[in-house]
Amino acid sequence: MQSNQKWIPLSIKLPPLGACIMVTIKNYLEGVKHELRYPVYYLEKVYSEGHTFYHGDTSNILLPEYSEVIAWMPFPIPV
Length: 79
Description:
The chain is mainly β. It has no helices and five strands. It has strands spanning 8-9, 20-27, 34-44, 51-54, 67-74. The protein has a five-stranded antiparallel β-sheet, with no helix packed on it. The mean pLDDT is 83.
């Protein structure tokens, strides 16, 4: 069974605050661009103002200069 959910570009709409979502990122580590997809949380920043993406807990922030989030979607609802 396929999900009818589509990727939402970050440039179009931000995810709900506190949500655990799936994201597509461009990974710039070691000068190579990769697209990775995995679950993250969209939360308030721990050490400064604003909001950001965390993988796992709040010690694993996705830094935009290394892992730029480009799109997101809610998790599919299990049937």
